[in-house]
UniProtKB/TrEMBL annotation:
Domain (NADAR) ranges: 10-88
Organism: Tsukamurella spumae
Superkingdom as given in the UniProt entry: Bacteria
Catalyzed reactions: 5-amino-6-(5-phospho-D-ribosylamino)uracil + H2O = 5,6-diaminouracil + D-ribose 5-phosphate; 2,5-diamino-6-hydroxy-4-(5-phosphoribosylamino)-pyrimidine + H2O = 2,5,6-triamino-4-hydroxypyrimidine + D-ribose 5-phosphate
Coiled coil (residue ranges): none
Name the UniProt record assigns to this protein: NADAR family protein
Amino acid sequence: MRVIDSFRGEHFFLSNFYPVGIRFRGNIFPSAEHAFMSAKTADERRIEAIRTAATPADAQRIGRSVPLVPDWDRIRFDVMAEVITAKFD
């Protein structure tokens, strides 16, 4: 069995930073990272700022400073599964 130990080169498409349109919770996001960061908050203005961020790194930076939805630490893995499912749907 071949182990994938990084999401670079031929495996970059597996990265949350890979540029691919994702339909998630009624919006189209430019990457999985954008979508995941948007799920951290209920603030529509911040969701839009994350969605329109120039890069996944910018979306991540914005997402680190948003007010969190209740129980974020409990639901974040389920949210990531939802995002990844949407990415490959």
